[in-house]
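Fold it.
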Amino acid sequence: MLQMMRRRDLFPLALGFPAILQARPLVEQGAMVGDVRATDALVWSRADRPSKMRVSWSTSDRGERTIVPGPYCLDVSDFTGRLPLEGLPPGQKIVYEVAFEDLRTGALSEPVTGSFSTPGRSDVRFCWSGDTVGQGWGINPEFGGMKIYETMRKTQPNFFIHSGDTIYADGPVPAEIKLKDGTVWRNQTTEAKSKVAETLAEFRGAYLYNLLDANVRRFHSEVPQIWQWDDHEVMNNWSSSKDIRDNILYKEKSVPLLVARGERAFREYAPIGAGSKVYRHIPYGPLVDVFVLDMRSYRGPNTNNREEAETPFLGRPQVDWLLAGLKGSRAVWKIIAADMPIGLLVGDGMDEQKRPRFEATSNGNGPALGREIEMARLLTGIKQAGIKNTVWLTADVHYTAAHHYHPDRANYKNFLPFWEFIAGPLNAGTFGPGQTDDTFGIEVVYAKAPPKGQSNLPPTAGMQFFGDVEVSAKTRVLTVTLRDINGTALFSKELQPERMRNRA
């Protein structure tokens, strides 16, 4: 009889023992769904103890539920678990519950609930942005926490692309920051976020810190996620050239070891498949294909970036994968989710010859050199394959902008015109604007950044940004709107779909 009650989530209440109630696993970080496709999705959650995860789902609140047994969630994964849901009906709202069974007592947790929609043939709307809890701007309860997540939730997007810097492992969160107007920003604090992350527990603690915010958890429960990573999941501007031997904040001086720990924590807390690469293809019905890039894992060292030979940034296998995927796509719009912009200079200090070292693709005006050669090869490949309707979305630079690239303005001319839109930060300091590089003919059509002479503005300044994209099933027109923390539309651009060349 007790065994039957356990399976029905009832036995702790039936027994009525407070001690048994305390033995129930806690699911304090909520749940989220990642990489939703027409018939499958991935559910992520976390318990507070050794447990077995399970998920049940239906197509309505009262419909027949399908129960899917999940993985054991042990300390080796910080009690996180991921469970693929397969055989979902396309074009339907899915309501799900996640519960955990205590491996010692058999007690079941209170279920956490969420919902999402699988892609069909209707209109598509999604958001993107990046940069969460950077520069010491953490969860401020007096401000309302990370309010931009609630603003995005209210737009009811089909999914959200987190463009990287999902945490700031190298960014401690102090209890207070005095603002220039004399007021004080007061952060919620934790031990893990009191210093730079060095141990695996501290990297994990950075993700747990973000999940303390009720806005974030509510957003995760209702909006499917597509995550990528950038540098701050480990440390600022890391590459194989990173040297922290003189950095007094770090006792651990091995960058490769810190990268390994940072990647381990990211893969535990990101809602992506355990064996999945960060670069991956997420088809979302006939209107949209999302191609997620990884601009961190395959790059060579950050240098002056003016080598005459091609140097890796995405790496040849990823470039080949992207070209093949774009060529094979039958979706109207191909969204390229990048974690860094193409045409802005992003510095990384000076090299041994006292020359500027660069973090991203660009290196200054002029012909394609270094990493730009790889980008040129990619853009030329898109043109040669006759691939139309590509849109680049990114974050990283902590302000919002709309960029148009055109060969008529460029030093390197063998590519098709395209748009790149930047959004962010979500909850971090606001900077910018960045210096442009004319190699690929960038035009800054719109930008909103701090006034000249100001930087690292707090969230109270209102300059936290996200973008949303709407694609009409009827007209196939794609509309990008850049928005601020309150959801106010700052800039909007309609893009008409071009007729695609027949690719047999």
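Residues 255-269 form the longest helix (15 residues).
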